[in-house]
Design a protein that fits this description.
5-stranded parallel sheet; alpha/beta; about 60% helix; 5 strands; 9 helices; binds adenosine-5'-diphosphate
């Protein structure tokens, strides 16, 4: 069953390695949707609920076993779906999430090398029938992302990882974009913010037209 068949809201996830530009474009897309009369909320992972935000604080700071990290990501997600994402979609509100399950495959699977079968099993457990309708993958070479991050913020546990980790994470994202072409759009994020926003407007027009038909 697709999301559209059991709810009116559409689910859009923003993905990409740290520094790719996800946060930069979320408010732009949210505002563009609002201008088209669409009710839309934005949220994030890990996080999105009080429990999820508490788990986020642990996940971004504490060292832990790789599988503990993956399990906590999915625990946060379970709560997020139950408390925020599914109720919004059911009420006809669109949801933009800064990261969703593709990020767990990319970071814990690609970056940390956790067996993808284990992640597939967790995904089947936590959200067997829910997938984003659209996943915007902001893609940049890792040196570009690193330069942007260094210029702007204190780095968290993931952002401090070595370049191999980020290139493996980026490659897993790109692999998934190839595996699920019906929902992924890969955005070349090396371009200017303005150029990217023009492309985002085209994508928004396309999904709004589809959603209305
Ligand atoms: P993410 O949310 O993917 O980690 P951010 O949106 O926080 O990335 O962007 C990281 C930094 O890079 C910010 O300072 C942002 O202003 C800058 N940035 C984002 N996109 C671009 C772009 N296309 N060109 C130049 N700088 C950018």
């Amino acid at each position: 069953m697709t999301n559209k068949e059991h709810s009116k809201g559409l689910f859009i996830s923003f993905e990409g390695i740290d520094g790719a530009g996800k946060s930069t474009h979320i408010s732009f897309v949210q505002e563009a949707l609002r201008q088209r009369g669409i009710r839309v909320i934005s949220t994030r992972e890990p996080g999105g609920t009080p429990l999820g935000e508490a788990l986020r604080a642990l996940l971004l700071k504490e060292k832990m076993h790789l599988e503990t990290e993956a399990l906590l990501m999915f625990a946060s997600r379970r709560e997020h779906i139950a408390q925020v994402i599914q109720p919004a979609l059911d009420a006809g509100t669109w949801v933009i999430s800064d990261r969703f399950t593709d990020a767990t495959f990319a970071y814990q699977g690609g970056g940390r090398k956790l067996d993808l079968n284990k992640l597939n099993a967790l995904e089947q457990w936590v959200h067997p029938d829910l997938q984003p309708n659209l996943t915007l993958l902001f893609d940049v070479p890792i040196d570009v992302a690193r330069t942007r991050l260094d210029a702007t913020r204190t780095l968290d546990k993931f952002e401090q990882e070595k370049s191999d980790f980020f290139s493996d994470t980026r490659n897993e994202y790109l692999r998934r974009a190839t595996e699920f072409p019906h929902r992924f759009k890969v955005i070349d994020s090396t371009r200017s913010i303005e150029t990217i926003q023009h492309e985002l407007l085209d994508i928004i027009n396309e999904i709004c037209t589809k959603a209305a038909s």
